[in-house]
């Protein structure tokens, strides 16, 4: 199969986006849909201001073994309502935890996390609801296996901002020597910056070989533009970076929990500072169970998956910032795009590692 350097390179996973309608709306929802029967899942929350739903169900000590979908959404805590639309769609298909004698008696467990984007388009009340969640899961279900994933200012990344720049959705994947695939999808919406203020290089680029440095004059012009935009925009009270890191490896719930935790390293490499009280940084881990970990390595076989999880999160963040082609300027603030400030020459240099 063709690899797209995307979360959907993990066989069976599908991704769908939906946007809130309206001239002053700048928000949306992204759904990661697991294959029928679900995936082993875990979560790790590091930010000081999280907004989540059903994350306690993912604790390895608790009863839920597998989940059918993960919801990433804008709209702050209001946007968590979008998960209800995903639950309804799953219930109609008999997908969820069986709780009665009838196959239709299920309770879909749909973990969700939100980013703060209230008012980014000018309308504080324009945020995702159950209908937005249903539209996103329907979009995911309508895609084929291993489909390309739309990135940039889409879905939950529609109103995302990172360090004054327009943020968005990014994705990346890699295949280990064992044949196991590890992939990530992120929504980049952080108080911290993704850009080195001294050079204009994205922090995540330093970990991907020799980066291309912007011309000093270009960088200086970008710094002036960002300062002007910051002066014209309200300081964001809350933000949050969200990620789903996934693998086709067979993992226990405890191993998935470890994967979610180490994947936060990938955020810390690409955004500075991170995990602040303003942020609700949350990482979900999914394991679809198609490939066994190499038996000869024993329990340490998980290390390769853990390292790759962090690396793919970093690359996904870089792509989210680079592939958000256009900034936003309106009643909710002025947020230029990295590509607009530094030009296509830098933005188009994105790596093809893992493809």
Please name the defining characteristics of this protein:
single chain; 355 residues; alpha+beta; five-stranded mixed beta sheet; 7 helices; 21% strand
Can you describe what's shown?
The protein is α+β, with helices and mostly antiparallel strands. It is built from seven helices and 16 strands. The strands form five sheets. It has a five-stranded mixed β-sheet with strand order 1-2-5-8-4, with helices on one face. Strands 3-14-13-12-11 form a five-stranded mixed β-sheet. Helix 1 packs across helix 2. The longest helix has 21 residues. The C terminus is likely disordered.
The topology string of helices and strands comes to: EEEEEHEEEHEEEEHEHEHEEHH
Helix content: 10-25%
- Give the N-terminus to C-terminus distance in angstroms: 11 Å
Radius of gyration: 19 Å
Poorly predicted runs of 5 or more residues: 349-355
- The order of strands across the largest sheet is 1-2-5-8-4
**Molecular shape:** globular
**How would you state the average pLDDT, rounded?**
92
Quaternary organisation of the protein chains: single chain
Total beta strand runs: 16
Strand content: 15-25%
- Main beta sheet, described? 5 strands, mixed
Draw up the topology in text.
Blueprint (H helix, E strand, L loop, with lengths): L13 E6 L8 E6 L6 E6 L6 E2 L15 E5 L8 H11 L4 E2 L7 E2 L4 E3 L15 H13 L18 E2 L2 E2 L1 E8 L5 E8 L27 H16 L10 E8 L3 H18 L11 E10 L10 H21 L5 E3 L2 E3 L2 H5 L1 H4 L8
Parallel strand pairs: 5-8, 13-14
Antiparallel strand pairs: 1-2, 2-5, 3-14, 4-8, 6-7, 9-10, 11-12, 12-13, 15-16
């Amino acid at each position: 199969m063709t690899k797209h350097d995307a979360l959907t390179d993990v066989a069976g996973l599908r991704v769908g986006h939906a946007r809130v309608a309206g001239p002053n709306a700048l928000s949306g929802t992204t759904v990661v849909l697991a294959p029928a029967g679900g995936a082993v899942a875990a979560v790790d929350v590091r930010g000081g201001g999280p907004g989540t739903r059903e994350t306690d169900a993912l604790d390895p000590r608790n009863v839920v073994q597998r989940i059918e979908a993960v919801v990433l959404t804008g709209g702050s805590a209001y946007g968590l309502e979008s998960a209800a639309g995903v639950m309804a769609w799953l219930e109609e298909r008999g997908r969820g935890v069986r709780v009665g004698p009838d196959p239709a008696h299920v309770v879909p467990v749909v973990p969700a996390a939100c980013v703060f984007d209230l008012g980014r388009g000018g309308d504080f009340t324009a945020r995702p609801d159950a209908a937005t969640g249903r539209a996103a899961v329907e979009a995911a279900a309508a895609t084929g296996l291993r489909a390309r994933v739309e990135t940039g200012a889409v879905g939950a990344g529609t109103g995302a901002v990172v360090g004054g720049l327009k943020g968005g959705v990014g994705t990346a994947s890699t295949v280990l020597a064992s044949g196991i695939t590890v992939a990530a999808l992120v929504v980049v919406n952080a108080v911290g910056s993704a850009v080195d203020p001294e050079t204009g290089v994205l922090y995540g680029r330093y970990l991907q070989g020799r980066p291309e440095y912007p011309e000093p004059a270009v960088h200086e012009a970008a710094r002036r533009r960002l300062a002007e935009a910051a002066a014209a925009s309200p300081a964001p009270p809350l933000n949050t970076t969200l990620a789903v890191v996934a693998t086709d490896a067979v993992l226990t719930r405890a191993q998935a929990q470890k994967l979610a935790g180490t994947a936060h390293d990938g955020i810390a490499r690409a955004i500075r500072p991170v995990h602040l009280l303003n942020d609700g940084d949350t990482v979900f881990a999914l394991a679809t169970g198609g490939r066994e970990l190499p038996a000869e390595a024993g329990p340490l076989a998980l290390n390769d998956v853990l390292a790759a999880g962090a690396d793919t999160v970093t690359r996904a963040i870089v792509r989210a910032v680079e592939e958000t082609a256009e900034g936003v300027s309106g009643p909710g603030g002025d947020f230029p795009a990295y590509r607009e400030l530094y030009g296509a020459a830098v933005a188009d240099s994105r790596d093809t590692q893992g493809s």
